Amino acid sequence: MYDWLNALPKAELHLHLEGTLEPELMFMLAERHGVRLPFADVEALRQAYSFNNLQEFLDLYYQGADVLRTEQDFYDLTWAYLLKCKEQNVVHTEPFFDPQTHTDRGIPFEVVLNGITQALKDGEQKLGIKSGLILSFLRHLSEEEAFKTFEQALPFRDAFVAVGLDSSEVGHPPSKFKRVFDRARSEGFAAVAHAGEEGPPSYIWEALDLLNVVRIDHGVRAVEDERLMHRLIDQQIPLTVCPLSNTKLRVFDDMSQHNILTLLERGVKVTVNSDDPAYFGGYVTENFAALHESLGMTEAQAKRLAQNSLDARLVI
Ligand code: HPA
Ligand code: ZN
Hints:
The protein is an alpha/beta fold. The chain is 49% helix and 12% strand. It contains 16 helices and 10 strands. The strands form 2 sheets. It has a 7-stranded parallel β-sheet with strand order 3-5-6-7-8-9-10. Strands 1-2-4 form a 3-stranded parallel β-sheet. α5 packs parallel to α7 (109-127). The radius of gyration is 18 Å and the shape is globular. The site of zinc ion has 6 residues, from loops.
């Protein structure tokens, strides 16, 4: 089944480039820059990847990103991910990057963006993988800081297709970012947002009604609100679900508890994604394989999930 799932053509719509930083590459970049990591070796770092919630993961994720410093680093990071896409027949990807994670430690916005966009261009030319980059705001920071980031990005408007919202969810509802999302949409960008991962269904309502998002990232807590379920089904609003992420961050205790197939069978437009594959134990195929192993996902269901991912692309 793994090989069959791997060969299925699919799109990835929920992937943080910073979350593709494999321990081996982290050590290589640390050496490149003479940085000492607080882990003895790759194995010790992998051992640290055990989380009780989103915040515990984010603390390590932001710390790990510190080795990303030059255009070449961002190129190498993105290229390694694209090679994985090729290996797993991900024919299209719409990755996020978090500019504030880098600009706040003194890395110029252009350094980050140039490295990523050059790799994405090469990915299309040399590997045939299409992409659309999403600029994601960190929701634990202020809306004013998001505005600053957006203004910094505007001169490079052709390099990205949408804005997103990620980082610590609870306590930072979508409503906090209504004005900056209005601004981004007025400039012609699409909007997506993480909502209903750890946060309540009301955050999904806010993402839809206040931020006017065209997709919800995660969204698995929608099942707690029947009226919201009807909205998602009636309007066929895609959810970019990340099964391995959800179990690693304890949104669900075990993969056997995951609700993605229930959502699928109720008619919600769910997709399968890897979120932060270097931290959560697998790329897209591993996520599909886990659904087969733990939930008995059939080939027919896998085909529908893959087709949903192609249908839910922003960039065609
Ligand atoms: N949720 C919120 N923020 C994130 C995530 C996530 O799953 N991954 C990287 N940043
Ligand atoms: Zn995410």
